[in-house]
Amino acid sequence: MNRPPILDFQHTFVPGRAARTLLLLHGTGGDETDLIPIGHALDSEAALLSPRGKVLENGMPRFFRRLAPGIFDEEDLIRRTHELAEFIELASENYHFDRQNLLAIGYSNGANIAASLLLLRPGTLGGAALLRPMVPLVPEKPPDLKGAPVLIAAANHDTMAPPDEARQLAALLRGAGADLTVSFENAGHGLTEETIATVKRWLMEKAR
Ligand code: MLT
To answer: Of 17, 25, 44, 153, which is the most buried if we count CB atoms within 10 A?
Structure first.
C-alpha cells in the first residue's frame, strides 16, 4: 500500500483554537515530544506540529548530519532542508493550516534547520524563533524574507553556538529583509526561563 508521504516524518500534531501553528524543532537527542510543553506555554491557543529529526548520531535524533560539533555536512543539510520543507507543505494540506501563520520555534539543531529553511525555502514558514542558532550555510543567492518576523535568541556564554555566529546569522537574515529581533542573554547553550519569556514577548508582538 502507498503510504501518504506525510507519514515519512514521525511527528505529533496538536490541534489549536487559533489560526496560528507553531512548528517545534527539537535539539540533538530530542524527539517530537520534547518541545510540546514549551509550545503550550508559549501559545496555549496555537496548533503545534512537531516532527522528529530523521538523522541518528549515536542514536540521537537530529535534523541533518554533522561531521563534528559545529561542522555540518552541507550536502545532507541541503537535502534534509528540502525534505522537511516538503513535509511541512504536505502537513499544511493534511492538517489545514496556513503556512503564512506557521512560525518555527527551533532550538539548537532545530534552530539551525529552521534557519536553513528560511535561507533555502523562504516561502515555507511565516517566520521563526531561532533559539541558540548558528549559521547553517550561506546560500548562493540571498532569499527574499521581506517582512518575515524572525527572532534570534542567543546567549553570551554559549560555547556551542557562540554569540559571533548569532551576529553573522543576524546579518544574513537582515540582508534578506527579515523583520529581525535579536536578544542576547547571560546564559549558556541551554534554554532558560528568560529565553522562553523572550520568545513569548516576541510572539505577542509579532504574531497576534
Ligand atoms: C548542530 O549540530 O546543529 C549544532 O552543533 C547544535 C547541536 O545540535 O548541538
So the answer is: 25
Ligand 1 contacts CB of residue 61 (under 6 A) = no
Size (the chain), residues: 208
Round the CA-based radius of gyration of the chain to a whole number and report it.
16
As a whole number of angstroms, the distance between CA 134 and CA 7 comes to: 29
Ligand 1 touching residue 55 (CB < 6 A) = no
Asked if 157 is an active-site residue, the reply is no
- Does the global pTM surpass 0.90? yes
Q: What is the pLDDT of residues 14-46, one digit of tens each?
A: 999 999 999 999 999 999 999 999 999 999 999
Q: How many CB atoms lie within 10 A of CB 144?
A: 12
Residue whose cell numbers read 536553513? 116
